[in-house]
C-alpha cells in the first residue's frame, strides 16, 4: 500500500507541477507583452506630443527614437497617414515602404484610437509587437503613430523560463518525492498497524488495543486509531464475556446427569458431552456424523433426522444392550436458524438430550414387584385363616380338630404380624426415622443378646453357636437397629443351616471399622442369586423359606440398616459349604 500511495502522490504532484508550469508560461508571456505594450504606448504618447516640432514626420521619428535609445529603449517608430502612406520611419526610408492601410494595428487605431498586433515584420524580419495611436500631425491632419518592438528578448525570456521551469519541476519533483515518502510513511504506517491489529482479530487472536499519538497519526488517522482502540477494548470485553459464558455453559452441560448431542444442518456433530459418550459408549473421535459412530449413535441420528425433516420435537425411549443394558429417554428438538457471515439464513441443526432412566425403570419394576409380593404374602395367610374359620363355622368339630384349626389360625396370624412388623421396620429405616443422637452401643452385648434368643432353636437342631467378640468394641448406633441387624443375620444362619452344623459370629476392630462376620455351614447361596438376596421378598428357595416362617424381608432390613449407618455389606457363599455375611461399620 505504501508503494501505491507513494506512486500516486508522486504522479499527482508531478502532474500538478507540469500543469502549473504550462499555465505559468503563457501567463508570463502575456505579462511581458502587456509590459512591452505599455512601453510602446509611452513612446507613442511622447511622439504625439512632439509632433508639431520642426523637421517633419521623418525627423520626428528619428529624434524620438534617438531619445528613447539614450534611455535604453530601442523602439522603432513610424508615422502613417490616414490613407496608409508611411510618412516617416526611424529605421527605414519611407520611399521604399508600401501602403500600411491594411495593417491590423493601423485599422484598429483609425477606428478605435488604439491598436495592437504581433506579427513578423516584412521590412526588418523577426516577430514584432506593434502598437498604434491615432493622433494629429504637424499640419493638423489625422495621422497614425506606430511603435514596434522586436520580441527576440521575449523569446530569450521564454527559453530561460522553460529552462528554469524544467529545473524547478525537477527540484520540486525531488522535494515532492521526499515529502511523499515521508507523508506515505506517516499515513500508511498507522494504517499498517490498524491492518495488523484487524487481521489479528480476524484470525481469532485476542483483540489488542491500539492508540496512536498525535505525532504518529494526526487528524483523522488519530481519530480512527482511537475509535479502533475503543472497538478493540469492547470486542475484548465481549470475547471475554462470551468465553466465560461458553465455559459456564460447557460446565453446566458437562455437569448434567443427562447427555447432550448437537448436530448442524449437514448432520455433523457440533457438541457432544462426556455424559453422552458414557451413556452411548465409546466411539471413533474422527467420525463426523453420528451414524458413523456405532449402532447406539445411529439410533440418535435417526431421531435427529426426523426432527430436521418435521421441525417438531420428538420423544422416544431406547433400550441399549451395550456397553451395558440401559433404558434411555431421548428428547430431540430443532435448533433455531442462524445467520451466516454472508448474511444468508442457515438451518440451525438439531439437539438431543439423553436421560438415563434405567434406575427409574428398575425402581418401577421393583415397586410393581413389591406390591405383587406384598399382596401375595398377605393373601396366603389370610386365605388360610378364612378357610379354617369357614370350616369352624360350617359345623361342630371334635375338640382335637378344633384345637388344631385354632393353632393353624394362630400361626398364620403370627405370620401376618411378623410380616407387618418387618414392613413397618423397613419403611421406618428407609425414611431414616431414627434417633437423632445414637448412643455408644456394645457389639458384644448385642451379639450375646441375639444368640440368647436363637440358642433354643439352634440347640433343638444340634447347631452350635460360637461367639468371638471384643468386649471393648463400641459403635455409635441405635441398639434396637443393631439388634435387628445381628439377629436377622444369625437367624438366617440358623434357619438355612444343616442339622448338627455351626454358626460362627465374630466382631473386632480393623483400621477404624467394626467388622462383624456371621458364618454358617449351611446350604449356601448359588452365584446367580447372590446379587438379589437383599431385595424385598426375594427367596432362593421359596418353599423352604415359607416352611421356616421367613417373610423374605430380613436381608433387605439388614442392608438398609447398614446403609443407614454408612457401612458396607458383603456376602460370600459356596453351595453345600456355607455362607459368610460381612458387615463393616464405622467406630464412632
Amount of helix: 40-55%
Distance between the termini: 81 Å
- What's the alpha carbon Rg, rounded to whole Å? 63 Å
Q: Count the helices. How many?
A: 13
Bin the strand percentage. Answer: 15-25%
The shape, in one word, is rod-shaped
Work out the number of β strands: 19
Low-pLDDT segments? none
Average pLDDT level = 79
What about the largest sheet?
Answer: 5 strands, antiparallel
Q: Strands across the major sheet, in which order?
A: 2-1-5-4-3
Helix and strand content put the structural class at alpha+beta
Topology (SSEs and partners):
Layout: H1 2-49, H2 56-70, E1 76-81, E2 86-89, H3 104-112, E3 114-120, E4 127-136, E5 142-150, H4 152-202, H5 219-255, E6 259-263, E7 269-272, H6 274-280, H7 295-310, E8 314-320, E9 326-334, E10 338-339, E11 345-346, E12 350-356, H8 358-394, H9 399-430, E13 440-442, H10 443-460, E14 464-469, E15 474-476, H11 479-495, E16 502-510, E17 513-520, H12 542-547, H13 554-564, E18 568-574, E19 578-586
Parallel strand pairs: 14-16
Antiparallel strand pairs: 1-2, 1-5, 3-4, 4-5, 6-7, 6-12, 8-9, 9-12, 10-11, 13-15, 16-17, 17-19, 18-19
Helix pairs in contact: 1-4, 4-5, 8-9, 9-13, 10-11, 11-13
List its traits:
588 residues, alpha+beta, five-stranded antiparallel beta sheet, 13 helices, 19 strands
Amino acid at each position: 500500500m505504501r508503494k501505491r500511495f507513494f506512486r500516486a502522490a508522486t504522479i499527482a504532484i508531478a502532474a500538478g507541477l507540469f500543469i502549473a508550469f504550462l499555465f505559468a508560461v503563457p501567463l508570463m508571456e502575456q505579462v511581458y507583452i502587456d509590459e512591452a505594450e505599455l512601453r510602446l504606448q509611452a513612446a507613442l504618447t511622447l511622439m504625439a506630443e512632439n509632433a508639431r516640432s520642426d523637421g517633419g514626420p521623418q525627423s520626428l521619428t528619428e529624434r524620438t527614437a534617438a531619445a528613447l535609445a539614450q534611455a535604453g529603449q530601442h523602439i522603432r517608430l513610424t508615422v502613417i497617414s490616414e490613407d496608409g502612406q508611411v510618412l516617416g520611419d526611424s529605421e527605414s526610408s519611407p520611399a521604399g515602404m508600401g501602403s500600411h492601410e491594411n495593417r491590423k494595428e493601423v485599422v484598429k487605431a483609425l477606428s478605435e484610437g488604439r491598436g495592437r498586433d504581433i506579427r513578423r515584420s516584412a521590412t526588418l524580419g523577426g516577430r514584432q509587437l506593434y502598437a498604434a495611436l491615432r493622433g494629429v500631425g504637424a499640419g493638423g491632419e489625422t495621422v497614425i503613430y506606430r511603435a514596434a518592438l522586436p520580441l527576440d528578448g521575449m523569446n530569450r525570456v521564454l527559453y530561460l523560463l522553460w529552462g528554469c521551469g524544467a529545473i524547478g519541476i525537477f527540484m520540486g519533483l525531488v522535494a515532492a518525492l521526499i515529502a511523499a515518502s515521508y507523508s506515505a510513511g506517516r499515513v500508511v504506517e498507522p494504517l499498517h498497524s490498524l491492518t495488523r491489529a484487524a487481521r489479528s482479530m480476524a484470525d481469532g487472536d485476542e483483540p489488542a488495543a491500539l492508540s496512536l499519538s498525535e505525532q504518529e497519526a494526526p487528524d483523522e488517522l488519530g481519530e480512527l486509531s482511537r475509535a479502533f482502540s475503543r472497538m478493540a477494548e469492547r470486542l475484548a470485553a465481549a470475547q471475554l464475556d462470551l468465553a466465560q459464558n461458553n465455559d459456564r455453559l460447557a460446565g453446566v452441560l458437562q455437569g448434567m446427569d443427562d447427555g447432550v448431542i448437537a448436530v448442524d444442518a449437514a448432520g455433523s456433530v457440533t457438541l457432544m458431552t462426556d455424559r453422552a459418550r458414557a451413556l452411548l459408549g465409546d466411539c471413533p473421535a474422527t467420525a463426523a456424523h453420528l451414524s458413523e459412530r456405532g449402532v447406539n449413535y445411529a439410533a440418535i441420528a435417526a431421531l435427529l433426522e426426523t426432527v430436521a425433516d418435521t421441525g417438531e420435537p420428538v420423544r422416544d425411549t431406547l433400550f441399549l444392550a451395550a456397553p451395558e443394558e440401559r433404558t434411555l429417554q431421548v428428547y430431540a428438538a430443532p435448533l433455531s436458524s442462524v445467520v451466516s457471515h454472508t448474511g444468508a439464513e442457515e438451518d440451525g441443526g438439531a439437539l438431543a438430550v439423553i436421560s438415563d432412566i434405567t434406575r427409574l425403570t428398575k425402581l418401577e419394576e421393583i415397586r410393581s414387584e413389591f406390591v405383587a409380593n406384598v399382596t401375595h404374602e398377605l393373601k396366603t395367610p389370610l386365605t388360610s385363616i378364612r378357610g379354617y374359620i369357614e370350616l369352624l363355622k360350617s359345623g361342630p368339630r371334635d375338640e382335637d380338630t378344633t384345637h388344631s384349626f385354632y393353632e393353624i389360625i394362630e400361626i398364620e396370624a403370627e405370620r401376618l404380624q411378623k410380616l407387618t412388623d418387618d414392613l413397618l421396620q423397613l419403611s421406618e429405616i428407609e425414611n431414616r426415622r431414627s434417633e437423632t443422637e445414637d448412643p455408644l452401643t456394645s457389639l458384644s452385648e448385642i451379639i450375646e443378646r441375639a444368640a440368647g434368643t436363637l440358642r433354643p432353636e439352634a440347640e433343638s437342631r444340634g447347631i452350635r453357636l460360637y461367639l468371638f467378640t471384643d468386649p471393648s468394641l463400641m459403635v455409635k448406633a441405635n441398639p434396637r437397629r443393631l439388634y435387628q441387624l445381628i439377629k436377622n443375620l444369625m437367624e438366617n444362619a440358623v434357619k438355612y443351616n444343616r442339622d448338627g452344623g455351626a454358626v460362627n459370629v465374630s466382631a473386632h476392630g480393623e483400621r477404624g471399622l467394626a467388622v462383624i462376620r456371621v458364618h454358617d455351614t449351611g446350604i449356601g447361596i448359588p452365584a446367580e442369586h447372590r446379587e438379589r438376596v437383599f431385595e424385598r421378598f426375594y427367596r432362593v428357595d421359596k418353599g423352604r423359606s415359607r416352611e421356616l416362617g421367613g417373610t423374605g424381608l430380613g436381608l433387605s432390613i439388614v442392608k438398609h440398616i447398614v446403609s443407614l449407618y454408612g457401612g458396607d455389606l458383603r456376602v460370600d457363599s459356596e453351595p453345600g459349604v456355607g455362607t459368610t455375611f460381612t458387615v463393616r461399620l464405622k467406630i464412632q
